[in-house]
Specification:
about 270 residues, alpha/beta, Alpha/beta knot, 2 domains, two-stranded antiparallel ribbon
Length: about 270
């Protein structure tokens, strides 16, 4: 099932799933939905079950070695992946990803990489997962949303697509917004406030917007936001903070090296 206009410049997501009716789902609404309708990106949902070879349309079987659950068959998945690549000269399946809790954790850097890739194919597993041999045969990358388990890869695929689509040109109303979001500088995002400037909560406590945000002094506002982003990251994500400090230290050393000038040679 195809959604959105396709073309050489249109970012395309091909999703292999047992539940194609789940798509576009949430991706058909808000920013992603409007962009899909306007042909900024395209979505192709592929029903894996159509590649089954028996009358029961079987896509899974019991695991070798015993154990609970079922495993998705390599022959069925191979047929689906091969068909998705299309004929010679077609855009192909691009970067092929299997959504798996044992994969590389999806982060903003990977999202940027995928946004620069014209076609991304996403394989959504079910049951206990897929036969390892098909991953090896097709060179699929494994990508995870985090250290938890979902019922299938469809929700993970939607999250990945949503994160990518909002980076595509023309999707976000204010292009500058993307540069201010969490992870763009290796930090979590600073707090946000809007009207009224003084708000009384349900317990009768008055809560005011920080004065600096009402000052109109742009440099002070930028400094406050950076300081808050650093404070929140240091407190909530020590892992991010360590990487951020390491990058700052390396940048400082590089600036120091570039700033050195050799004096005149002694005669």
């Amino acid at each position: 099932m195809n959604h959105g206009a396709t073309g050489p410049l249109v970012w395309t997501a091909k999703v292999l799933t047992l539940f194609p009716e789940m798509f576009p789902g949430p991706l058909g609404h808000s920013l992603a939905g409007k962009a899909l309708e306007n042909g900024v990106w395209a979505l192709e949902s592929v029903d894996i079950r159509t590649f089954a070879r028996d009358k029961h349309r079987s896509v899974d079987d019991a695991p070798f070695g015993g154990g609970a659950g079922m495993v998705m068959r390599p022959d069925v998945l191979d047929a689906a992946l091969t068909a998705t690549a299309g004929p010679p000269g077609a855009p192909g399946r691009g970067r092929a990803i299997y959504l798996s809790p044992r994969g590389r954790v999806l982060d903003q850097e990977l999202v940027k990489e995928l946004a620069a890739t014209p076609v991304v194919t996403l394989l959504c597993g079910r049951y206990e997962g897929v036969d390892e041999r098909v991953l090896d045969a097709h060179g699929l990358e494994e990508v995870s949303l985090g250290d938890f388990v979902l019922s299938g890869g469809e929700v993970a695929a939607m999250c990945l697509i949503d994160a990518v689509v909002r980076l595509l040109p023309g999707v976000m109303g204010n292009e500058a917004t993307a540069g201010e979001e969490s992870f763009e500088r290796g930090l979590l995002e600073y707090p946000h406030y809007t009207r009224p400037s003084v708000w009384t909560d349900g317990q009768g406590v008055e809560r005011s917007v920080p004065d600096v945000l009402l000052s109109g002094h742009h440099e002070k506002v930028r400094a406050w936001r950076l300081a808050e982003a650093e404070r929140i990251t240091r407190a909530r994500r020590p892992d991010l903070w360590s990487r951020y400090e390491a990058v700052r230290k390396a940048e400082g050393l590089n600036v120091g090296k570039q700033g050195r000038r050799r004096g005149p040679k002694p005669e």
